[in-house]
Amino acid sequence: MTFSRNYASLLISSIFVGLIVTPNIASALVPLLISERGSTSTQIKHQGLNQSLNQGFNQGRNQTNNRDINKTNNSLIAQKLIDIDPSEFKPTYKEPPPRRNTPLPNQRRRLEGIQLESVDYRVPSLQPDFNGNLWVGSWRGLTRINPNTGKILTRINLPNKAIGALAEDKSGRVWVGTYAGLKRVNPNSGEITAQNLFLPSKRVLSLLVDKRGYLWTGTDNGLALISPDQGLIMTTLKNLPGVSANAMTLDADGHLWVGTLEGLVRVNTASAKIMKRIKEVPGTTVQTLAIDSQGLIWAGMPNNLLVINPKNGIVLRSVTPLRGKDVRSIKFAKDKSVWIGTNNGLLRLNPYTGAVLDQVAGLPSSRVLSLAPDVGNKIWVGTSEGLAWLMPKMERAKSHRAFGREVE
């Protein structure tokens, strides 16, 4: 029995040191270790152990051979892959492939499914003040800039940012007409010091300070006269012919002319009564008004520019270069030339002959909404896509980056 134990111990040590124990070997060793008596049974167990070891060695050898064969096969496959010409993997084109275009930031956001915020950059009103600054009324709010440098001086936070008109009263206060009513702003502090929502309509389209200093407010449903100090309505004119007070100007006698959906109306500023109505005008709807140095009214229509004598209401002429044009803004410069903003660009005309002196390029949009000439030695132009400016002898206008899409 001592020999059997020693022999078993030697076999076990050899197996754990250098051999892989297979399930067959393990099953042969279990009875050998348990049995302690009977030489015959021990002999039989020795023979069984030898057979099991031989089977285990043969299985291990076969596994090793199989691994060697697999390695050889893998090496051959890898060698074949290495020998493949890389050009076999390239697609063939009859023509060179199209050049890849890198999308712009906004395009990339669209491709990635990010919704872009809808922002309206229109600038419907420009108002120079007594200090030489320029107030910019846009659909993004109210801003005061230095017109010499373009630097932003003040931003006014308004409850409603859609501004339709601006005016400065005789005390230097800024009146802001929005699509939600009328507000008075202190230019020094930027605070809203008065507001009046009880107008004929909340949608303010035009503002004008008369010679007495009172503020006329034009809405899409009539006129209102405001006391600038108290900010209170003095009177209203709801039965205005043509309903909507789109534009206003003062003639040489101090009377108020109002451009409506049905021609022109003259209003006595003292009594707030209608004095005259001119409805037989081509185009009917008056969108903008101005008075030239001779006291004649220039009326911008959706398809024309008319010159009217205010004393008798006769249309003197239709300005030839503007026939068929949608005229949105009219301003006379110090040199007596006239700037005309249309839905298709900006022109400067000789007011006596109607000849085109300049046609401005480089605007952020061809749709011109407001003008302010001779401010900071420039003409400032409000468009549907932001603010621009032009100096004498410049071939192209330049955009103010703080008011357009370029800032995005």
Describe the structure.
- With 408 residues, this protein is α+β, with helices and mostly antiparallel strands.
- The protein folds into two domains: 87 residues; 283 residues, Methylamine Dehydrogenase, Chain H (7 Propeller).
- It is 20% helix and 34% strand.
- The protein is built from four helices and 28 strands.
- It has a four-stranded antiparallel sheet with strand order 1-2-3-4, with no helix packed on it.
- The N and C termini lie far apart (96 Å).
SSE topology sketch:
Layout: H1 2-18, H2 23-34, H3 39-83, H4 105-111, E1 125-128, E2 134-138, E3 141-145, E4 152-156, E5 163-168, E6 174-178, E7 181-185, E8 192-196, E9 204-209, E10 215-219, E11 222-227, E12 232-237, E13 247-250, E14 256-260, E15 263-268, E16 273-278, E17 288-291, E18 297-301, E19 304-308, E20 315-318, E21 327-332, E22 338-342, E23 345-349, E24 356-360, E25 368-372, E26 379-383, E27 386-390, E28 398-399
Antiparallel strand pairs: 1-2, 2-3, 3-4, 5-6, 6-7, 7-8, 9-10, 10-11, 11-12, 13-14, 14-15, 15-16, 17-18, 18-19, 19-20, 21-22, 22-23, 23-24, 25-26, 26-27, 27-28
Helix pairs in contact: 2-3
